[in-house]
Amino acid sequence: MADSPLSAALEFARMLTAGGLRLDPLDSAPSIEDIRRLARRRLPTMAFDILDGASNHELTAEENVSDLREVRFRPRWLTDISTVDVSTSADGQALARPYVLGPLGLQRMIGGEGELGAVRAAGTANIPFTISTASNWTMEELAEQASGPLWYQLYMYRSEQIVSNLIQRAKGIGAEVLVVTVDVPLNGKRYRDHRNGMSIPPRITPRNAVQAIRHLDWTRAIMRPPTIGFRNLKDEIQGDNAVSHQEFVAKHLANLTLTWESIEDVRRQWDGPLYLKGILTPEDALRAHRAGADGIYVSNHGGRQLDSSPSSIRALPMIADAVGDDMTIIFDSGIRTGDDIAKALAVGADLVSIGRAWGYGNAAAGEKGVLRVLDILDGELALAMGQLGATTIAALDRSFVEYPEAWHGHGMHRAPEPSEVTEEFTP
Question: Average pLDDT in the 188-197 region?
Answer without folding.
Answer: 86
